[in-house]
């Protein structure tokens, strides 16, 4: 059983992480904040928080 995210940033994190692991977001691909917002259905603040978490875990590189 998977844990259900309880915050907007948690939901954005889960969607982005799944897209990375599933190959929908290819390695080295640039992802703009507005595109990530559209992909996750979240606003920029939760998406930035999700990207920060993904960066800390080594899934993305912030530039």
Q: Which structural traits does this protein have?
A:
single chain; about 60 residues; mainly alpha; 3 helices
Describe this entry's structure for a reader.
- The protein is mainly α and 63 residues long.
- It has one domain.
- It has helices at residues 8-22, 33-40, 44-56.
- The longest helix is centred in the N-terminal third of the chain and has 15 residues, at 8-22.
Order of helices and strands: HHH
User: Could you tell me how far the N terminus lies from the C terminus, measured between alpha carbons in angstroms?
Assistant: 35 Å
Bin the helical content.
55-70%
Question: Ranges with pLDDT <50 over ≥5 residues?
Answer: none
* Beta-strand residue fraction: under 5%
Mean pLDDT: 92
For the secondary structure, the number of strands is 0
Give the total of domains.
1
Radius of gyration: 11 Å
Largest sheet: none
Outline type = globular
Give me the number of helical elements: 3
């Amino acid at each position: 059983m998977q844990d259900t995210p309880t915050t907007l940033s948690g939901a954005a994190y889960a969607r982005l992480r799944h897209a990375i692991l599933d190959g929908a977001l290819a390695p080295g691909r640039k992802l703009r904040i507005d595109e990530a917002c559209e992909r996750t259905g979240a606003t920029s603040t939760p998406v930035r928080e999700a990207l920060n978490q993904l960066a800390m875990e080594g899934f993305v590189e912030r530039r």
